[in-house]
Amino acid sequence: MCNDRAPPKKAPDASREPRGAECIIENGPRERVLSDDELATIWNALDDGGDYASLLRLLMLTGARREEIAGLRWSEIDPEAALVRLPGERTKNGRPHDIPLVPQALAILKARQRQEGRDFVFGTNGRGFVDFSGSRADFDQRLNGAIAQRWTLAAYCRSAFRSRQRSPRRT
């Protein structure tokens, strides 16, 4: 079997397992969207102040890509304009991009402790946040099965952004 998510393409010779180029992964478009209840469950399960919790909340509030927030630098944040100003080398399409920051996102960033001589908002050792698998495993234990269907960070961000777009503004 090529992987556990997609069936292998039939091999020309049915007596052998498909390999290499014969193995087609049919992921198709990403369609998983979390419900508003699932989003609320995730939001409420996040502990206060840790890198992973703050990062997930910023992803939800901004609709930004995972690596844009994980590698966020203090020098990219314009608190007066309530924007993250990403240079082209940090975006998928290679063009500069401004991400609006709602008051909750600004509050999360203001609560972070800025380390002397370090431009990254998250992570350690001279780079942005990278411990997604370890942090996710710990977080899944805290969720304790509260979300039955498998979810990814991409689905979380996509769902959160769609939820914000269709919800009326709350004050």
Keywords:
171 residues; mainly alpha; 3-stranded antiparallel sheet; 6 helices; globular; disordered N terminus
Give the topology.
Blueprint lengths: L35 H10 L5 H12 L3 H5 L6 E2 L4 E4 L10 E4 L2 H9 L20 H12 L9 H14 L5
Antiparallel strand pairs: 1-2, 2-3
What features would you describe in this structure?
The chain has 6 helices and 3 strands; from the N terminus they run αααβββααα. It has 171 residues and is mainly alpha-helical. Strand 1 and strand 2 form a beta hairpin. The longest helix has 14 residues, at 153-166. The chain is globular and about 40 Å long.
Uncertain runs with pLDDT below 50, 5 residues or more?
1-27
Over all CA atoms, what is the radius of gyration? 19 Å
- The portion of residues assigned to helices is 25-40%
Tally of individual helices: 6
* Biggest β-sheet: strands ordered side by side in the sheet: 1-2-3
End-to-end Cα distance, whole Å, is 52 Å
Q: Structural class from helices and strands? A: mainly alpha
What's the overall average pLDDT, rounded? 77
Strand percentage: 5-15%
Helix and strand run: HHHEEEHHH
Q: Please tell me what the overall shape is.
A: globular
Number of strands: 3
Oligomeric state as shown: single chain
Main sheet characteristics = 3 strands, antiparallel
